[in-house]
Amino acid sequence: MMKKIAVYSLIICLFSFPYAYFSISQDFNDSSMIGYLLMIIATTIIAFFGSLTNNTIAVFIGNIGSVIISFYFNSKMINIDSWDGYFKPIGSIRFLVVVSVVNLIPQLVAINFAKSLNKKRFETTGIHSNK
Q: Helix, strand or coil for residue 92?
């Protein structure tokens, strides 16, 4: 039980990073798409291991936390004219939403893959992965 709580907490902590804000900030500052790639890789790996350990709820809570933190940091930049103008025609707030929603797609694929691995493991061994 304590191990499950620790893994649950770790997943939420790993998602506490403002991935969406970091990505659009990298895009704004460096005109680089590397932030989006790093976001997709990191969140997909965390979602996979979260689902593999039957902590999918922590993945969803973590995603919500990450978006909230991203919105906080975005609100600190919103008064900079070039910041919001860089993301025209939709602006930084809407773009942050789009990035966050699109980022869920590879996570959902990873979650489904992990669930299928758990199902195969249970069918072959009879052992649940959350023990």
A: helix
Could you tell me the two tokens for 36? 């989006």
**Does 105 score more than 60 pLDDT?**
yes
CA neighbor of 19 nearest in space, from 49, 62, 60, 58: 62
Instruction: Report the largest interatomic distance among the alpha carbons of the chain, rounded to a whole angstrom.
Output: 59
pLDDT higher than threshold 90 for residue 129: no
| Contact yes or no for 39/103 (Cβ under 8 A) | yes
* SS3 state at 130: coil
pTM of whole model > 0.85?
Answer: yes
Residues 6+ apart with CB under 8 A from 87: 24, 28, 94, 95
User: Of 101, 26, 113, 28, which Cα lies nearest the Cα of 66?
Assistant: 101
Scan for tokens 């979260």, then name that residue: 50
32: helix, strand or coil: coil
